[in-house]
């Protein structure tokens, strides 16, 4: 199970913003969020949603090519199409 915890770097170490019991040698993935990508808000959840939306716009922008269904190797019989 993946768990996301807010944290910050205090200049010397990474600090969790809320208490969480970690066992020694627990594997972690740290994501650095550039300051220009952080939308200032009092609501951390809203900020994360806005950042996610920005990344989705980047990934699925206007320049994303349309792929035809003839490129499919196997058709999903349960897919109803658009």
What does this structure look like?
With 82 residues, this protein is of the alpha+beta class. It has a domain at 7-61. The chain has 1 helix and 2 strands; from the N terminus they run ββα. It has one helix at 44-59; strands at residues 7-9, 14-16. It has a two-stranded antiparallel sheet with strand order 1-2. It is elongated, with a radius of gyration of 19 Å.
Descriptors for this entry?
two-stranded antiparallel sheet, alpha+beta, elongated, 82 residues
Short description:
The chain has one helix at 44-59; strands spanning 7-9, 14-16. With 82 residues, it is of the alpha+beta class.
Q: What gap, in angstroms, lies between the N and C termini?
A: 33 Å
Estimate what percentage of residues fall within beta strands: 5-15%
Structural class: alpha+beta
- The geometry reads as elongated
Q: Tell me about the biggest sheet?
A: 2 strands, antiparallel
Protein topology:
Blueprint: E1 7-9, E2 14-16, H1 44-59
Antiparallel strand pairs: 1-2
């Amino acid at each position: 199970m993946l768990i996301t915890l807010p944290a910050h770097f205090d200049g010397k170490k990474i600090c969790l913003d809320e208490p969480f019991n970690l066992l020694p040698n627990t594997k972690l993935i740290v994501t650095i969020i550039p300051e220009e990508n952080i939308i200032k808000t009092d609501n951390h959840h809203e900020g994360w949603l806005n950042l996610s939306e920005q990344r989705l716009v980047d990934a699925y922008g206007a320049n994303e090519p349309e792929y035809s269904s003839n490129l499919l190797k196997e058709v999903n019989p349960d897919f109803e199409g658009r």
